[in-house]
């Protein structure tokens, strides 16, 4: 039933073993109980004994247990004392993980993210989205202990990945994203509002109200008609304890529909307690995520423990079984002696 060694066994109350010698102390220092027998006192006792040829005995006798009764008492006493010491078995080592932050990454999938003005780690020209995927993969590896989530936005915002500690799943869902799969426009404020809602729902369900909440927004354009203004969403985020870091991809000097609204981006970061970054190329994008990593250091903690299982009730169960067997044996012996006595009387 149990697979353990003596090194896996410990006692919660080991001082109970000090009571083991108590029966010996009582045996040697406390007079034994003697059963009294009725007798007749006569003045001619010596002549009567001599005439009968009997050996006189004391008026009280001491009961003497048989060997199996002694063994039953000794084993039962040892088992009872061991049970009182509450032996426990240490289970296999378990790891208890304490996660630090919830990090929600918001990625812009508008049409401008297809611009091939970034380079990969190998030096090839890639789209802004592909460069973001590559940098985010490196960023995720540094977030041990954090739960990551992913929101994609364009004409609308939707939750691609709920908060998870499984980085492989998160990266797989990130790599499935394509430019314009959420539409051509940039509804930045709606995406931020959705992120705040996801934070609230996740923490209410899991009871992690004290958990730190961080949102990282990656965009290359300005807000184009969100129901919720980005600045208003930032104020709500601050009230809910959500820090929002903004990363603007592209040239801030760009004009037209693809122009970056740096004033809004900076204000959103300031209102929520985060910081704003500008990424003109892969190196600056990587530097932005590295700086965010410094601003939001890991809070991950892990501890190892071994679960304990008490086995004292098994010992008590053994004592009960021993006494049932002993009582049965005593009853059978008494019945056998009674039968033998009846046979002698019949003879």
From TrEMBL:
Record-annotated membrane-spanning stretches: 12-30, 71-89, 311-332
Top-level division of the source organism's lineage: Bacteria
Coiled coil (residue ranges): none
Name used for this protein in its record: VWFA domain-containing protein
Keywords: Membrane, Transmembrane, Transmembrane helix
CDD domains attached to this UniProt entry: vWA_BatA_type (cd01467)
Entry-linked Pfam families: VWA (PF00092)
PROSITE patterns noted in UniProt: VWFA
Organism of derivation: Photobacterium gaetbulicola Gung47
Gene3D superfamilies in the cross-refs: von Willebrand factor, type A domain (3.40.50.410)
